[in-house]
Design brief:
Blueprint (H helix, E strand, L loop, with lengths): L2 H23 L2 H5 L2 E8 L4 E3 H12 L4 E14 L2 E13 L6 E14 L2 E16 L7 H4 L1
Parallel strand pairs: 1-6
Antiparallel strand pairs: 1-2, 3-4, 4-5, 5-6
């Protein structure tokens, strides 16, 4: 494997990580930076072009006080200027006055090299499981 192929693999695997951290930080400009403007997204709550998807995602996510996405296993394929990465994720959704939950999903991303970087051109989110949380979970950030 060439140095360029290794760099491409790292950059592609970084996309879901940057997305998750930006989502948890509510940094919508950084979330946008992970996707092509006309990306097709099949999410768990909406299917469509990226602008419609992210508007709905923002509405849903901002109902929660905090979210935390933990990414695990990734499988990546690179073929020149296109690639695919599947990423396992466990996401915690915590709030006040709203049902708190934790979900397990898989992100299936098709990516393209754009202006020397990589962007998601198509995403399918498969919900694997979800569980409502009960009991008190302390928000350590708020306790500082």
């Amino acid at each position: 494997m060439s140095l360029q192929e290794l760099q491409d693999r790292l950059d592609i695997e970084d996309l879901p990580k940057r997305y998750a951290m930006a989502l948890d930080a509510r940094d919508w400009v950084a979330v946008d930076g992970c996707f092509m403007a006309d990306a097709d997204v099949q999410g768990t709550t909406l299917q469509g072009k990226y602008p419609d998807y992210v508007a709905n995602l923002r509405r849903v996510v901002e109902q929660f006080h905090t979210t935390m996405h933990f990414l695990g296993t990734q499988l990546t394929v690179v073929d020149g200027d296109v690639g695919r990465v599947t990423t396992y994720c466990i996401a915690f959704h915590l709030g006040v006055g709203i049902e708190e939950l934790v979900v397990g999903v898989q992100y299936h991303d098709e990516v393209m090299r754009v202006d020397g970087g990589w962007k998601i051109s198509k995403r399918r989110v498969d919900g694997v499981w979800s569980r409502a949380l009960s009991g008190e979970i302390k928000d350590l950030v708020a306790l500082r």
